[in-house]
């Protein structure tokens, strides 16, 4: 061996040993953890100093009792951050530590999501086939006692909607198994619809029927802000075992903090998006959009945003389209999310600001009428007030003519109902009304449907045409 070779060898050995020592020492180093402190808790909002985080970032609060509370930055004032907890904060003391949840860095070899913000990486929840037949809360924790979720994937819960110009248009009809909807208010694959109704007029039953009968690959149900008792009833009695088998249910009932209810809605949409991105046709049901808006109102008012319309701050009206726009068709040739959002119309007031705003951002609205429900006419869909905006592009002219004819006769009968019932109408005065009276019983029977009956699209159309033949 020559002299220069020996020098290189010594040099390498020295460096290797130095680097090995460094490696060992790194193991002793305590990672520096930035933290803040809670200075104020007032109602729903907590204030924290000492952290500089973006709005929407996640943090963890180790509680004195050993539990950990997840929270989100919902606003700031100077150097004070406003945090909203995801669960109960009873037991918190002044000065409790706040730790930011660091976004995990993408691993080498993974393809970053095309529409993901860096901050979204912090909040990933389980998505995928393992959720079918399961009931989870807004944070992806199982509520059904069937053990841990066997999901292969996780996804960010807040994703920006796809570019509208890249989306496939609504061209195909979707069979929802309800005669009145298939025939009179045909739904298109990828359409987003509102179900407008007051309380107790049959929303849940109708949604349950659609969840069981719709020709979709998977169903994703979000029960947001409803009564806890109703969650159980919906899953056990209305959805039933056959409905649940192909459904993923996210439940964030009224007693959960508002942030959890918002997250529940975002998570429901994220699950549906994951299935859609795999090319599946998804039916998404969200009950209710109004409670989602109310959760956002609670948060916005708590951090000092001024109320505008009927106590709703402006941010509520900005949040609704952000959620709704995520549903719909995917890229051309891909899957779809057909979505139904229930909208509560308190006291059957169709002018409620949320109802108004929802009507403007959705592709149609189905109104459930209390008068019909009270008369035992179920599903209580008011075909005069309801509209499916995609219907004229996806149905044949003959179908449209028949539907319009039925609507005209129904409407004519309804307007003259009082005259007819008191016997003030003389037969033969108005030929259209005569036909309406003659067909009224058949039309009523056509629009009603038993909870257990599944009426497919071909049968619905055949029955519609046979009314006039
Ligand atoms: N298709 C139907 N056939 C027979 N009865 C029905 C039908 N749909 C609804 N009902 C009746 O209406 C009742 C109320 O329905 P549902 O619970 O779906 O109303 P809701 O609008 O969801 O009420 P809430 O506002 O309390 O959530 C049901 O208990 C049932 O008796
Ligand atoms: Mg209900």
Automatic annotation (TrEMBL):
InterPro entries to which the protein is assigned, alphabetical: AAA+_ATPase, ATPase_a/bsu_AS, ATPase_alpha/beta_chains, ATPase_F1/V1/A1_a/bsu_N, ATPase_F1/V1/A1_a/bsu_nucl-bd, ATPase_T3SS_FliI/YscN, FliI_clade1, P-loop_NTPase
Alphabetized SMART domains for the sequence: AAA (SM00382)
Keywords annotated in UniProt: ATP synthesis, ATP-binding, Bacterial flagellum biogenesis, Bacterial flagellum protein export, Cell projection, CF(1), Cilium, Cytoplasm, Flagellum, Hydrogen ion transport, Ion transport, Membrane, Nucleotide-binding, Protein transport, Translocase, Transport
Superkingdom of this protein's organism: Bacteria
Gene Ontology terms, MF aspect: ATP binding; ATP hydrolysis activity; protein-exporting ATPase activity; proton-transporting ATP synthase activity, rotational mechanism
Nucleotide-binding found in the keyword field: yes
Main location: cytoplasm
Span of domain AAA+ ATPase: 189-372
EC number, UniProt record: 7.1.2.2
Protein name: Flagellum-specific ATP synthase
The organism of origin for this protein: Massilia violaceinigra
């Amino acid at each position: 061996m020559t002299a220069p070779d020996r020098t290189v060898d010594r040099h390498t050995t020295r460096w290797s040993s130095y680097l090995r020592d460094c490696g060992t020492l790194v193991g002793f180093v305590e990672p520096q953890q930035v933290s803040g402190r809670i200075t104020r808790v007032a109602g729903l909002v907590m204030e924290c100093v000492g952290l500089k985080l973006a709005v929407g970032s996640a943090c963890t609060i180790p509680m004195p009792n050993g539990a950990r509370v997840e929270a989100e930055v919902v606003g700031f004032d100077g150097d004070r951050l406003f945090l909203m907890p995801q669960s109960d904060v009873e037991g918190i003391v002044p000065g409790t530590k706040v730790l930011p949840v660091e976004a995990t860095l993408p691993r080498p070899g993974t393809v970053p999501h095309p529409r993901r913000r860096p901050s979204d990486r912090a909040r990933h929840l389980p998505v995928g086939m393992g959720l079918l037949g399961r009931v989870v809360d807004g944070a992806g924790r199982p509520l059904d006692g069937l053990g841990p979720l066997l999901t292969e994937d996780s996804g960010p819960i807040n994703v920006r909607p796809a570019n509208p110009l890249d989306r496939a248009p609504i061209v195909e009809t979707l069979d929802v198994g309800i005669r009145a909807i298939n025939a009179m208010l045909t739904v298109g694959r990828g359409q987003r619809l509102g179900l407008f109704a007051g309380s107790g007029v049959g929303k849940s039953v109708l949604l349950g029927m659609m969840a069981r009968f719709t020709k979709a690959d998977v169903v994703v149900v979000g029960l947001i802000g409803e009564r806890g008792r109703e969650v159980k009833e919906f899953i056990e009695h209305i959805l039933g075992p056959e409905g649940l088998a192909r459904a993923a249910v996210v439940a964030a009932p009224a007693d959960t903090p508002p942030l959890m209810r918002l997250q529940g809605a975002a998570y429901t949409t994220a699950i549906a998006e994951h299935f859609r991105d795999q090319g599946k046709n998804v039916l998404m049901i969200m009950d209710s959009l109004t409670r989602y808006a109310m959760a956002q109102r609670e948060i916005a008012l708590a951090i000092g945003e001024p109320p505008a319309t009927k106590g709703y701050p402006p941010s509520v009206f900005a949040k609704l389209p952000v959620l709704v726009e995520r549903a719909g068709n995917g890229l051309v040739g891909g899957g779809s999310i057909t979505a139904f959002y229930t909208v509560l119309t308190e006291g059957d007031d169709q002018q409620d600001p949320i109802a108004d705003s929802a009507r403007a951002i959705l592709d149609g609205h189905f109104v459930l009428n209390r008068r019909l429900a009270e008369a035992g006419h179920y599903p209580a869909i008011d075909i005069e007030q309801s509209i499916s905006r995609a219907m004229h592009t996806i149905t044949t002219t003959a179908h449209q003519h028949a539907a319009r004819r039925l609507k005209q006769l129904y409407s004519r009968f309804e307007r003259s109902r009082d005259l007819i019932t008191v016997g003030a109408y003389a037969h033969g005065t108005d030929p259209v009304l005569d036909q309406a009276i003659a067909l009224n019983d058949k039309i009523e029977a056509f629009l009603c449907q038993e909870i257990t009956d599944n009426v497919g699209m071909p049968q619905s159309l055949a029955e519609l045409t046979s009314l006039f033949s």
